[in-house]
Predict the structure.
Amino acid sequence: MTIINNESDIIRKDQQYVWHPYSSLTDPIPAYEVTSAEGVYLNLQDGRQLIDGMASWWCAIHGYNHPVLNQAAKDQIDRMSHVMFGGITHSPAVTLCEKLVALTPTGLSKVFLSDSGSVSVEVAIKMAFQYWISKKQPQKNKLLSLRGGYHGDTFAAMSVCDPQNGMHHIFNQVLPEHYFAPKPQTAFDQPFVKEDIAEFKAIIEAKHQQIAAVILEPIVQGAGGMHFYSPDYLRQVRALCSEHNILLIADEIATGFGRTGKLFACEWAEISPDIMCLGKSLTGGYMTLAATLCSDEVSDGICEGEAGCFMHGPTFMGNPLACSVANASIDLLLSQDWQANIKRIEATFSAELELFDSLESVATTRCMGAIAVIEMKQPVNLAEIQKKFVEQGLWVRPFGKLVYLMPPFIMTDKQIKKLMKGVYEVLSGLQGI
Ligand SMILES: *Cc1c(COP(=O)(O)O)cnc(C)c1O
């Protein structure tokens, strides 16, 4: 018999010493102790195995403990795990930057490597501001973003997150103020209505002399609401930015590397941004690494200015270990028919979601690529629902009204069905609450 020991030493000490994302230390919710992970499974300390519907916040696209990624890390660690990037270069970083330029939309030709998604957004924003300072237009010091967006937790990133659920009310004394257009209303597969972009257009027309850049998540707004919008909207944003001398920053940290069914979500609209942020699945979920790409126009503009260089340089920039795993992860993705695989996941999700529409507690469902969303009528109680998911043998972590799934791409149809059956069991148990 397995003894279920929920009060293991680790969990007790965890509550005593350790911050978790968006967590309280005075009223902590116990975390689950994972001791290993393999394929699509997380193994808990008490012997239970959970099927992972989150890919560790959308990162672990190839699943856990992948032999190819493990080997890449082992090979690199025996050479060097880190060297400074100031004045030094190495093959893992150069290879990665060359790959990223080749794979991303045309026009993106220079790469700045950094440590995390939020930092890559800070870098993108700094690039945009420094570009306009160099161009002797320092009054272009505002950003325009979309309501319902999420760009990270650091200060510049936070200032362009949705003002309601993005903590602005708490930090409004310290956050810079930027412009917000309404969240795009036209769904991904609906015919575009002109009015949808009217307010965005009005802001651009009125304020373009102050606006340095538009920043948005192309096609899929992730952590701000799991919302899928029309490629026509994005095309028009691109056109308006070009027309009014405004840079376009595409935050592809969540959408990059195949999640939506295209390698990058900008491809749905066939547009190129001036600056692009990548992170999350860049290393297949192995290590933290992010990249900010920009056009020659942006890099030349910055470097020809008074400062003569771009004013940024993190200590762990271009970490060879992370770059090596990123190279292996990208090669692994591209070595397969990944488009067909994402279509398979989408078809299975789509069929499985039908059942949820009949549940009293469910408002609506949607899916795109390897993303499935069940929007509830009421916000869920995270601590309670998480426990129920774990009892079903699942790892699913909803936020607000959104129960969503973003599994590793290696999840089989059988495993997806098991995952969805478990989610259905939990949600149907919420009926009437
Ligand atoms: C997760 C995310 C970020 C922040 O990345 P971190 O690695 O958590 O700093 C920024 N933008 C988008 C779209 C994201 O999904």
Notes: Residues 32-65+337-428 form a domain with the Aspartate Aminotransferase, domain 1 fold (CATH 3.90.1150.10). The pocket of pyridoxal-5'-phosphate is lined by residues 116-118, 121, 150-152, 217, 222-223, 251, 253-254, 279-280 (CB under 6 Å).
